[in-house]
Amino acid sequence: MPVIRATRYHDISCGHRVVDHEGTCQHLHGHNYRVHFHCEADALDHLGRIIDFGVIKSTLCQWLEDNWDHRMMLWKSDPYLTSLLLIDPSIVTVPFNPTAENIAAHLLTVVGPQVLPPTVRLVRVVVDETRKCSCEAVI
Ligand SMILES: [Zn+2]
């Protein structure tokens, strides 16, 4: 049996900054992220699917919409955080410096297991930060 994966991507716009970055990424800025979700299961369902693409949309993609889309994402240890929260309480805090690497790893290891059906595993997440640059986390 070949390895079969179901994949769907979703686009969000999100602000961030990378604390202690050597260059311009230390500044508040944002990206139009494209996030690719790759799912596997031990067996196909009775129709021959890993997961319905609509379920990827209603779980993983919707999680992005609800939590990160059109928000500013800052590390909980970002020294700017306290001041910026006074200006914009909708800022999202995350337990990591929000690089594309850490974003991919968080989606793979924390979000995927929370929102997917128990028979489905998120095995790879690719985060395109720009059209040229992406990072992936793989189990
Ligand atoms: Zn950036």
From TrEMBL:
The keyword Metal-binding applies. Pathway: Purine metabolism; 7-cyano-7-deazaguanine biosynthesis. InterPro entries: 6-PTP_synth/QueD, 6-PTP_synth/QueD_sf. Its cofactor is Zn(2+). Its EC number is 4.1.2.50. Keywords: Lyase, Metal-binding, Zinc. GO terms for molecular function: 6-carboxytetrahydropterin synthase activity; metal ion binding. PANTHER family: 6-PYRUVOYL TETRAHYDROBIOPTERIN SYNTHASE, PYRUVOYL TETRAHYDROBIOPTERIN SYNTHASE. Catalyzes the conversion of 7,8-dihydroneopterin triphosphate (H2NTP) to 6-carboxy-5,6,7,8-tetrahydropterin (CPH4) and acetaldehyde. Belongs to the PTPS family. QueD subfamily. This is 6-carboxy-5,6,7,8-tetrahydropterin synthase. The lineage of its organism: Bacteria, Pseudomonadati, Pseudomonadota, Alphaproteobacteria, Hyphomicrobiales.
